[in-house]
Amino acid sequence: MPAKSKAQQKAAGAALSAKRGETKPSELVGASKDMYDSMDEDELEEMAGTTRKGKPSKKDS
């Protein structure tokens, strides 16, 4: 599932970094921590790899 906003993409990138062992999971907060706990590496990679062009800064509710 592709990211709907730049903020969502950034959170997925942070969670992916922790999944890969590049950063500590204890450093994650908010959405990135939830994504780390609930998504696997492939899902995070797909979300983090979404192009940013044309995406809003934050997702509308």
Textual characterization of the structure:
- With 61 residues, the protein is mainly alpha-helical.
- It has one domain.
- Helices cover 51% and strands 0% of the residues.
- It is built from three helices and no strands.
- The chain has helices at residues 6-19, 30-38, 41-48.
Largest sheet: none
Quaternary class? single chain
Instruction: Give the structural class.
Output: mainly alpha
Compute the CA-based radius of gyration: 11 Å
Strand content: under 5%
CA(first)-CA(last) distance: 17 Å
Question: Would you list the SSEs in sequence order as H and E?
Answer: HHH
Mean pLDDT over the full residue set: 89
* Structural shape: globular
What is the helix content? 40-55%
Q: Kindly state the number of beta strands.
A: 0
SS field, number of helical segments: 3
Tally of domains: 1
**Ranges with pLDDT <50 over ≥5 residues?**
none
